[in-house]
Amino acid sequence: MDGDRAPLRDLVELKKRFGGLLMLDEAHAVGVIGTNGRGLAAEENVSESVDVQMGTLSKALGASGAYICGSRSLIEWLINRARSFIYSTAPPPAIAAAAMAAVDFLASPEGEKRRLLLWERINLLHKLLLSFDVERWTFKSCWSTFNAQRSTPNAQRSDERDLSFNHRQ
Predict the structure, then answer these.
(1) How many angstroms separate the Cα of 91 from the Cα of each of 32, 62, 67, 79, 97?
(2) In sequence order, which residues have a C-beta less than 8 Å from that of residue 59 and are 6 or more positions away?
(3) Cα separation values, 21 from 53, 108, 159, Å
(4) Rounded to an integer, what distance in angstroms lies between the CA atom of residue 64 and that of residue 95?
(5) 71/75 Cα distance (integer angstroms)
(6) What digits encode the pLDDT tens for the residues 40-86?
(7) CATH number for the domain running over 8-133
(8) Residue 94, φ and ψ in degrees, nearest 5
(9) Which pLDDT band, with edges at 50, 70 and 90, does 30 fall under?
């Protein structure tokens, strides 16, 4: 989640050399990395070498649930043997439709435009964060800044504040 990327090409080479299988979790890559948000394997052009690809429908896709892609025999084995499939129910039709709509959006020119805008903002935030003197920031100074902002004339009364910040100094 902090921007690290697996050395996927090296892993594919090791897989081939030793005859292994490669399973890739694209949970934080789908919707963000690769053309149309297809993930790291697509960006590195090694999708055909990944045996099992999995990810979530909840992060960039805004639905719930997850997906797994693999060979037909793997998928049939999982459907019939994996407890998480056996003891669960199918997603509601609305959730399945929302996930499909999100995938369709990612594949569209507008989706790609939105993904590129996200990267512009990621790079801007990264640049701004690097410009701060991180050593001088502590929880106490951040909390003081937060409290100072809350005490401005537009701040809410204490009984109207968001209950998730229930800390008193």
Answers:
(1) 24, 14, 12, 15, 10
(2) 27, 28, 30, 31
(3) 11, 32, 57
(4) 7
(5) 6
(6) 999 999 999 999 999 999 999 999 999 999 999 999 998 888 888 77
(7) 3.40.640.10
(8) -65, -40
(9) very high
Cα(167)–Cα(59) distance, integer angstroms? 29
Domain ranges of the chain: 8-133
Tokens matching residue 90: 């199918």
Cβ burial 24-40 (10 Å sphere, 16+ → b, else e): bbbbbbbbbbbebbbbb
The residue type of 16 is K
Looking at residue 159, what is its pLDDT? 41
What confidence tier does 90 reach under pLDDT thresholds 50, 70, 90? confident
Number of H helices, E strands in the chain: 7, 3
> Tokens 């502590």 sit at which residue?
138
Tens of pLDDT, residue by residue over 101-130, are 999 999 999 999 999 999 999 999 888 888
